[in-house]
Write a structure and sequence with these properties.
Distance between the termini: 26 Å
Strand order of the largest sheet: 3-2-1-4-5-6-7-8
Largest sheet: 8 strands, mixed
Structural class: alpha/beta
Number of strands: 8
Shape: globular
Order of helices and strands: EHEHEHEHEHEHEHEH
Strand content: 15-25%
Number of helices: 8
Length: about 220
């Protein structure tokens, strides 16, 4: 069975690049999206060098989103809304996984959720009801994605579309991460707030903490 083509918008960044690395290694055809085709091409070439080949294309964000079946958005909060508006015409009817965290530098260790409630809600409001929006990957240590080591982290998946949430959970399984349906898109506020909490803990302990859910048995 052929795997769906995935666009990584912000694939030249740390989180986007890490997700691209893991998905490419798992055999997914990818297209790296960036604000310019040149930046996307540089990231795609670097990825192909790291994994020894693979089906990895490179386009500017709108074109990348247009040619993919699933779109992952991994950009800084300050760039989120403009990025989403640039791909909006190209993602209607598709699963869009938004990994944006509402971090406001320089106080990224302080929870500062936006008036809308979360970056996930901003993405939902910006893209509209025609998009199968999911919020996920906020608490994954991005640097670990680019290594071969195990990622000791569970992924919280928030969406108003249960089928899109399940698609995201299956993607997580494909790259050796456990994920759980955490409810509606408004619940993404909790995952985003946890990111600042984890940053604060990490600074104090000089570590890269993540989250694990317990008490779920074998489900």
């Amino acid at each position: 069975m052929s795997k769906p083509k995935i666009a990584i918008i912000g694939g030249a960044g740390q989180l986007g690049g890490g997700l691209a690395f893991r998905l490419a290694k798992a055999g997914y055809p990818l297209v790296i999206g960036s604000r310019t085709a040149e930046k996307a091409e540089a990231a795609a070439q670097d990825l192909k060098t790291r994994i020894g080949g693979g089906e990895v294309g490179a386009l500017e964000n709108g074109a990348a989103a247009a040619g993919a079946e699933i779109v992952i958005v991994a950009v800084p909060f300050a760039a989120q809304k403009d990025t989403l508006l640039s791909i909006k015409p190209h993602v209607q009817g598709k699963v869009v996984i938004d990994a944006t965290v509402a971090l406001v530098p320089p106080k990224v260790g302080t929870v500062q959720l936006p008036p809308e409630g979360s970056a996930g809600v901003i993405a939902h409001n910006t893209l509209g009801e025609g998009v199968k929006l999911v919020s996920a990957f906020q608490n994954v240590p991005a640097h670990k994605l680019l290594t071969g080591e195990d990622i000791d982290c569970d992924v919280l998946v928030c969406s108003n579309d249960r089928a899109a949430a399940q698609t995201t959970i299956e993607l997580c399984k494909a790259i050796d991460m456990q994920a759980y349906d955490a409810g509606v898109i408004q619940n993404s506020a909790a995952a985003e707030a946890l990111t600042s909490v984890l940053i604060s803990i990490g600074r104090r302990h000089k570590a890269h903490p993540a989250i694990r859910l317990t008490g779920l048995g074998s489900h």
